[in-house]
UniProtKB/TrEMBL annotation:
Pathway noted in the entry: Amine and polyamine biosynthesis; spermidine biosynthesis; spermidine from putrescine: step 1/1
Protein name: Polyamine aminopropyltransferase
Primary role: Catalyzes the irreversible transfer of a propylamine group from the amino donor S-adenosylmethioninamine (decarboxy-AdoMet) to putrescine (1,4-diaminobutane) to yield spermidine.
PANTHER family the record matches: SPERMIDINE SYNTHASE (PTHR11558:SF11), SPERMIDINE/SPERMINE SYNTHASE (PTHR11558)
Pfam families, per database record: Spermine_synt_N (PF17284), Spermine_synth (PF01564)
Binding site for spermidine: 102, 171-174
Primary gene name: speE
Species of origin: Geobacillus thermodenitrificans (strain NG80-2)
Length: 290
């Protein structure tokens, strides 16, 4: 999109005196949220960044007009992209998050004392600053000394790294703009190389309803690199279609722990959710077999 100084972008508009955000990045589907207040709105070098206060979802992070996370349902995605891989790798010590500018994934990862380092490589400093200041329900005002913020392109950052991390979590926005390359096979090959011999990665792999092609391509790309691959899902109300997918690629066998060690202050993930999230509905199970 074109950056427009501090003027509000066209997807924030008045309708009969009410303020609305309309996500209009899709050809055949528009989703609108009634907005109480624009808390923050500025273009960055990469995208247009807003924090809006909405009636139904509380404060939300909106990048280029697309809702990324909200006070009401952000924990679902952030817990699922961190606790599931960290439960599958109980010995993990070095973790890397790519993207994740709302800080919610880093906040969840920091609940694991056994993690010695949590690096977060986010391309857009403005997203992190806006979320730390205006979206504490998601970012939690994260100040854990193990979390190291690195402002860089995740694609360039992993290039040339070898055997550094036990777990890499790719918490990207949709595959357009700066996040497009985070869905490429070259990038996954670099992620594979950056992992230790026992390492595993997870990425958000989009909507099984609206982006099944992206999910299938992601699954195939990861399966070509990793001997062990699993897809799991969660329901995130503000993502189109509700149902959202995550794909894990692992160098080590994916053994389910007899006892999980999920922190007791989660709101979505618990032992039962962890065990059932890999049960896929038939249309998805068979699509991945093709
Ligand atoms: N939970 C969200 C979702 O699925 O819609 C995404 C969370 S987070 C806000 C996504 C972050 O990825 C954004 O802050 C964006 O700036 C960052 N990002 C996009 N492309 C990137 C890249 N190439 N390297 C590092 N971070 C990137």
């Amino acid at each position: 999109m074109k950056h427009q100084g501090n003027a509000l972008p066209p997807y924030v508009h008045l309708d009969n005196g009410e303020l609305w955000l309309t996500e209009d990045d899709r050809d055949n589907l528009k989703i609108s949220y009634r907005i109480k207040e624009v808390i923050f709105a500025e273009p960055s070098d990469y995208q247009h960044v807003m924090i809006l206060d909405s009636y139904d979802f509380g404060r939300m992070l909106v990048l280029d007009g697309v809702v990324q996370t909200t006070s009401i349902d952000g924990h679902i995605y952030n817990e699922m992209i961190t606790h599931v891989p960290l439960q599958l790798h109980p010995e993990a010590k070095q973790a890397l998050i790519i993207g994740g500018g709302d800080c919610g994934a880093a906040r969840e990862a920091a609940k694991y004392d056994r993690l010695e380092t949590i690096e977060m490589v986010e391309i857009d400093k403005k997203v992190v600053h806006a979320c730390k200041e205006h979206l504490p329900a998601v970012s939690g005002n994260l100040s854990d000394p193990r979390v190291k913020f690195i402002y860089d392109d995740g694609v360039a950052f992993v290039q040339g790294k070898e055997g550094v991390y036990n777990v890499i979590m790719i918490d990207s926005s949709d595959p357009v703009g700066p996040a497009e390359a985070l869905f490429s096979s070259e990038f996954y090959a670099n992620v594979h190389r950056a992992l230790k011999e026992d390492g595993l990665m997870v990425c958000q792999s989009q909507s099984p309803i609206f982006h099944l092609d992206i999910l299938k391509r992601t699954y195939r790309n990861i399966r070509e690199l990793f001997p062990h691959v699993l897809v799991y899902t969660a329901v995130v109300p503000t993502y189109p279609g509700g149902m959202w997918s995550f794909t894990i690629g692992s160098k080590r066998p994916l053994d389910f722990p007899a006892q999980t060690t999920i922190p007791n202050d989660t709101k979505y993930v618990n032992d039962a959710v962890f065990r059932q999230c890999f049960s896929l509905p038939e249309f998805l199970r068979s699509a991945l077999e093709e």
